[in-house]
Every structure is written in structure tokens, then in C-alpha cells.
Structure prediction request, 830 residues.
Amino acid sequence: MSDNDGKKTLGVRGGPRGGSVKQSFSHGRTKNVVVETKRKRVVVPKPGAGNVAGAGKPAPIGDPSKRPAGISDAEMERRMKALQAAKAREGEDAARREAEEKEREEERQRRREEAEAKEREEQERVEALKAKEEEDERQRRAAADAAKQAAAAPAAEPEGARAAPRGAAPSSAPRKTQDRDSEQKRPAKGKGMGDDNRRSGKLTLNQALSGGEGGRQKSMAAMKRKQERARQKAMGGSQEREKIIRDVQLPETIVVAELAQRMAERVGDVVKALMQNDMMVTQNQAIDADTAELIVEEFGHRVVRVSDADVEDVIAKVEDKDEDMKQRPPVVTIMGHVDHGKTSLLDAIRDAKVQSGEAGGITQHIGAYQVKTDSGSLLTFLDTPGHAAFTSMRARGAQVTDIVVLVVAADDAVMPQTIEAINHAKAAKVPMIIAINKVDKPEANPQKVRTDLLQHEVVVEAMSGDVQDVEVSAKSGKGLDELLEAIALQAEILELKSNPNRAAEGAVIEAQLDVGRGPVATVLVQKGTLRRGDIFVVGEQYGKVRALINDHGDRVNEAGPSVPVEVLGLNGTPEAGDVLNVVDTEAQAREIAEYRANAAKEKRAAAGAAVTLDQMMAQAKQNENVAELPILVKADVQGSAEAIVQAMEKIGNEEVRVRVLHSGVGAITESDIGLAEASGAPVIGFNVRANAPARQSANQKGVEIRYYSVIYDLVDDIKAAASGLLGAEIREKFIGYAKIKEVFKVTGVGKVAGCLVTEGIARRSAGVRLLRDDVVIHEGTLKTLKRFKDEVAEVQSGQECGMAFEKYEDIRPDDVIEIFEREEITRTLD
Prediction:
């Protein structure tokens, strides 16, 4: 083919469509290009061919004319099989989807029917209840009308008095209403289960798992609230719930959220009420009791003002009945002067060696033991130390005891600590038994002991008194049986009883911090029975009884009245003398302990704040000339620490004193070393040792640690150290007098007095005073002392000499020179 220019062009059969396109090039060049487009060839199958549209059958594989170009027989067969498999799977999926949709529709229908059935049952029950109430009301009105008519005309019986039969026409109208409501509430067929009415009733497991077709399920409480609203609506409108008036306890301060909880009101409402009263607070802030009282009254509740101290009211104040009281063992305290044989006497009674375990043979702690007599009765003994430093410990022993055995050595008679023990026993109003010990010694004089006791108003039976006295010997065992009989007789007279079936109450005899067991308290149970697992509060500490250990070291499950035990399970070390009380819950115990700790802290702060500025300045002025010896004290038990602190307070005078920076129970720690270094104080360890970090820190910082096991040695060493702070006493010794006869003026020296030594000796190294008309006008030292022209050290009485004063020249004839020497005398504390 060719175009208008006569050039040949490419073409295809079927009639190509031609055209020209103008192309543009750079530099303004253009060119016309002839293009042709092919028409799409449409292959139309011949009539009667095998591959008819919609037949779903592939063309014969062996017919190459019916197959696309370039496709082999194997490829064509593979394609046909894949097509057939895809169509088969599509059919199976459609069938499965249809079955699942049918199953879901059935499940929805079943749920609808169940929900409608439950709703009908509930509605019928409500309608029946309403109908019954209406019926009862009609019967009551009819009965009232019948009574009135019977009073007016007894013969006539009104028709209205007859009661309508149960289930009659009055209930038909509500039933029609119920049917109409249920028809309106019933969801349309085919719709989802989104209607909330279907959720009335119990929440089934299927509903919880299915999630309600993707919708959020309401809670069970919401369902119950909805049912309650529906029930109230059916009963004739919603009824206002009656407000509950509560007694709201208000402490001195209370958190807003806690106030809302006690009123059973919403926190948001309480905060809103506070804001309306110009109080911009959050729920976690505390308000005072007056503000809280206004809010409580605004919400319509009653106010009960309580104090923080009311937390201790949970400690039961049980009044024991006479029929519950049972006999208990007596608590016997052994008292007396140091080294009068108290522990040795108890050893002889117990047939044990308690004294061998005490350092230096001196009792350092309060020991509690139980002894069984030959008659089978139990006696509880408290062995208190007799040294003067343990006065407070003896006082605690007297407060918990029933009988005091006063041990007095027959060879030593009444001593200071014996008198203190007598005073403690009298103050506690406790009967005494006098045990005159060491009667086996040749110098023993029991009669002198009885006579000395008369001076302190203690009259023994041998002297026609009412106080029992027994002569004993701890060494030979003489009189021990008589002593036990006297104790048993005294206990029988006292008729000691206690109720073991109540919450336990006891006194802490001793407390210590054990390395392996933690805080341990020796408790003497006074009332009730203390058992393992009991929750208790003791002083500012609380805990749960983890273990009870008796005086033999054995673990026991319970301890009754008058039984001493070691209690494990405290959260801290209590003070000796604290009272242990068993409470119901750990929360109560913690609350009481925290209240007591805060009260003690506030008391200490108030005591410090009570000092005025003038008092502080006067005290500082008074103490500025007082030398202090600071020390830190760590002891094994609380009683020993208290005794050491009291002993330290007694050391000193108006010039020097001992100041205890810190006292505690337990091993010496690194923090103690840090405090000692900052204060320049030594650390005193009584029956305790420093741990490894503390020892290393002490070596690095140069802090001195002293260990003691006997209180005598500790007191003596501290007294000696405090004595070193005392200034030496300066004493003057007059050695002579000289009278000035003439005054000379010497060049280069100044005025020189020509003197006659009238008495004693004049020494150049001595001090001098210049007296004029017996009045001291100058005190100083000599610049020169000459005999003739020679400088001499001293001049004897009756000789003449020349004297010149250091930096003083106002000397006159007839003045008297007093010569003296000063000497230093070392002072000690008594």
C-alpha cells in the first residue's frame, strides 16, 4: 500500500486505520510520521461448537484450532483441572457459609425465645403480685365497708363485701396490657440481638463467651438495676429509696475520701459540698473535725466526735467474774543488797547454777524462773539485781510481784540497797518475808538484823511483829524448806486468783535484741493465757506471737497466769515495764502502736518546746563552764541500758558531767561509730560487741570502743575519765615576808627596793604581792633578786636584799612584800 506521496506503508489484513502524527525536534525541526492501528480480531465460535458459553465445559484438548496459541496439551489439561477444583471449592464454601448462617439464625431465634419467655414470666409474676395486692386492698375495703354496714344494718349484707374470686376479670386487663407490651418489645425477625431487653435475667455462659454479636455486655449489677426499675415501674412508678441516717465518727483530722466512705456517700458529692463551702480540696486531702462536722450535718447524718486516744478502747477491759477465777502461782521477788546471796539462795532452791552464768558473780538482769516445791505447788521467782544502779529494775520487779523475799546477810545486816528494797515493797504494798542468809558463818548475828530492821518499821514475828523471818543458808541448805513453807503460807493468805480464759495481759520484765531471733521480750503473764499466734501490742511496739520459750529453754504453745516466757515475733524492742495486751487484728495493734509512738514523740517535742528563750540562754550560760564527757552506750538488754544511763547521770558535779549521747540495745553498728566520731565520744559496749563493719570504721576514724561485762568496772572507768576533765586545784603556800626599807633608782633596771626579809624565805621563782597598809595593790613576779651585787635564787630571814618587780615601779618605803608559791592538786570525783 502507499500514501499520497507514493511511499509504501506497513499494514495488516482486515483494513488498517491510518493517520499522521507531527513530531517536534530541537532547533525548530518537525516531521510528519504516518502511523497505522490494527483492529482487534474477534473470534466468534461457529454454531454447534463444543465450548458453548454457560456450559461450563472446556474445549476439547485435542482440538488445536480451539486452543490459544503456544499452549500444549499438558498445560491445557492442568489448567482445566485447576479450574474444576476452584469451582468445587467455591461450591463447598458457599454450602458451609449457608449452613453457618442457618445455625446462627437458629441460635438467635432460640435466644429471642428464651428472653421473651423469661420476660413473660417476670411480667406475669409482677402482674400477679400487683393483682394480689389489689385483691387484698379490695378485700380490706370490703371488710371495712361490711363492718360499717353491719353496724348500721346488721340484717343487710352488701354485695360489695363479697371478695372477688382469685384470677377474675381485674387481672385480665393487665394481662392484655402485658401481651401488648411484650409484642412491642419483641424484636423483629432477622434483626440482631442488640436490644437491651434480651439481657434481662441471668447472664448465661454462652452470652458471656459470644459477646453479644460484638456488642458490649452490661454488668450483672446493671441488669439487676434494670429489673428493679422495671419492677418499680410495674408497681406504680419509681419509689424514692429511704435515706439511711448514719453515725459518723469524726477524729481530729480526717481525709475526704475516708469521710465519704464513713457517710456512704459519693466522693464527688462530698468534694462538691466542700467546694460550695469555699474549701478547694481533693479527695486525698485532710480536713479538720469542725469542717467535717458541717459536711456530715449537710448530708443529714449524725456526728460522733472521737479522739485519737479512742483507738486504745479496743483493748478489752474485761471484768472477771468470780466463778471464772482460778488459783494461780504466786510471783515471788527476791530483793536485797548486793552480794547478800540472793542468786545463791535461788540457786539452792532451784538446785541450779544461775549465778555461774553471770559475769563476776553479779546478777545483771532480771531473771524469771518457776520452781516446783515438794508439795507440788508452783512458785514463780524474779531475781532482781541488788546493785544501786539497778534501782529502776528493782522497782519494776516490785510492781509485778505478789510477795517480796528480802535477803539480808547475817554478817552484814541492813545496807543501803536493803533499805531501798524495803521502800519499794512498801510503795507497792506487797507483803515481805525476811530471809536472814549466811547464818552458817562464824560472825553471823541474826538478832542484829532483826534489831536493825526495827529502825525501818519492819517488825518480824520473833519481835512480836507480823513479818515472817526465816534463818537460811544458801551454802548448806539450812532453812530452805521453812522458807518455801512461809511463801506458801503467805500465798494462801493472799488467795491469789486469775481468769485464764480471757485475752492475755502481762508485763515486760526484760527486753533485748537477739542477733538470731530478733527482738525478744521476757513477759510475765498476769491475766488470761498467751498463746502462739496471738496478736498483741506492747508499749510502742506490736507483733504476733511466733514462739513462746519457758525458763528451761523449751518451746511451749501457751502460757497462763504467773508464767514467765520469752516472746518472739515483735517488730521492735519494747521498754522494760511496758504492758502487753492481746488484740483481735493486726490492724488494731498497728494503729495503737503508731498512736502511742506519735504521742511519745509529741510529748518529747512539747517538753523541748516548753523551754523559753530566757531559760535556754540561762542554761547555756550555766553550762558554758561545765566540761562534758560524751559517751555512747550499747547494752544487751533494755534494763541494763537504763541502769547504765542512770549511773552515768549521777557522775559529775558543777564543773564536769557525763552526757549519754545515745543508748540502745544490740550490737555496736557503723551508725554508732559515725555518731561517736562526730561527737568525739567513746563507745561503751556492755555484754555486746561491734560487728565487722563497725570495727573497721572505728579503726579508720580512731573511735575508741570499750567492752564491759560488770557494771562496777564501767562506772569506775567513766568516773576516772570524767575526773580527768576536772581542772587541777591551785593552792597557795606562803613562804615569807619582806619589808621595804629604801627605794633606789638604778640605770637600766628602774626602781629597786632595798628590803629586809622579816619572815620565811624570799625566792626569785615565787610569786609576790605588794601590800600597802595591808591592802594588795599589785600581784606579779620578781624581775631581780640580789644580795649585795650578786643575783641570788633565795634570801633567808633576817638578811637584806634588793628586789625589782616585773613591769611595776610604784613602790614606796614601808611597803610589805608577800612571797608565796602555787601548787596544783589533782582532783577526783567522789
Summary: Residues 1-12, 48-59, 154-200, 352-365 have pLDDT under 50 and may be disordered.
